[in-house]
Amino acid sequence: MTADVWLPIPPEDIEGLPAGPNYRFWNGGEDFPADPADCAYYVVPYMKPVEVVLRPVPRLSSVQVVQTLSAGTDAIEPGLKYLPDGVRLCNARGVHEASTAELALTLILASLRGVPDFVRAQDKGEWRGGFRPALADRNVLIVGYGSIGSAIEDRLVPFEVARVARVARSERTTARGPVHPLTELPALLPEADVIVLATPLTETTRHLVNSDFLARMKDGALLVNVARGPVVDTKALLAELESGRITAALDVTDPEPLPPGHPLWQAPGVLVSPHVGGPTSAFLPRAKRLLVDQLSRFVNQEPLRNVILTTGPTGA
Predict the structure, then answer these.
(1) What average pLDDT does the segment 2-7 reach?
(2) pTM over 0.85, yes/no
(3) Which residues are CB-neighbours of 270 under 8 A, at least 6 positions away?
């Protein structure tokens, strides 16, 4: 194995990388570390703009694997058409579950218990009490029940929620109970006090949360988005927020980054965090473990984990 592997983490900082490949460090800088045509394994820089991570893609004529360090692959997917047939696209399943689930729970609790109002009051030196909703005894609906959705439920259980309903692309049964298909979502929405979005962004889920979805939510319900911004129709959400009928906590938005002056910043009942579900202290050690495992499999010609698709007539 003499092919190049492009890493967004300096290779000397990753203990256990298998011998053989030429490891090249590239984290989105202006200059490429080598000829992209010699790259066999491209690890996509994490949390970089789409135009940055796509820049070398048209020249990756020998690439065999494209590996993201994000749970979603939507940032790299526009470049798949430039790649040769047979390229495996892998995501970072196993890296972000803990951090994203932590944030989902944080956003739920902060929104229900009024933490943003407390912070604003503290800035003014004002003591503002009152009753707030609790998470206990609430019905929670998780839309997108993959590894992140499952990790969110793990953290909800100790808070004595009344019920967790699960929705995914396909129906199945888990140890915790049934996972409903998307087709059953309309019937589940009116029962939920808290709805957590953890679904990948696909053509099916783009604007899944539209005016009809929002209208089915019960009065006073909380919408939490730790998925992708375009899963929600921002215009439709703003209309509901401005009416005061529901509230929202958004780690991702559409557009993103949310520009100054955008109505979402000032909408009533909304908490915005700047897409921080993944980038925590938990990221780097898990990302390194994933890369060591995947590259060891690659060098030894063993099956890779987390293969989302393979380019070509039957793939991308």
Answers:
(1) 92
(2) yes
(3) 241, 247, 248, 249, 250, 264
Residue positions annotated with a catalytic role: 275
Sheet containing 22-25, strands listed edge to edge, beginning at the edge strand earlier in sequence: 22-25, 4-7, 39-43, 65-67, 88-90, 307-310
pLDDT, residue 313, reads 74
According to DSSP, the residues that pair with 145 across neighbouring strands are none
Torsion of CA 261, 47, 31, 8, to 10 degrees: 160
Torsion angles phi and psi, residue 166, rounded to 5: -125, 135
- From CA 81, how far away is CA 58, in angstroms rounded? 9
Give mean pLDDT, residues 174-178. Answer: 94
Tell me the C-alpha distance between 140 and 138, whole Å: 6
**Contact in structure between 114 and 92 (CB atoms under 8 Å):** no
Return the SS3 of 211: helix
Q: Identify the pLDDT of residue 1.
A: 47
52, 43, 51: which is closest to 70 by C-alpha? 43
Is the Cα dihedral 9, 12, 15, 16 positive or negative? positive
Check pLDDT > 70 for residue 260. Answer: yes
Report the alpha-carbon distance of residue 67 to residue 2 in Å, rounded: 19
Tokens of 137: 């005894």
CB-based contacts of 109, cutoff 8 Å, min separation 6: 115, 135
pLDDT category at 185 given cuts 50, 70, 90 is very high
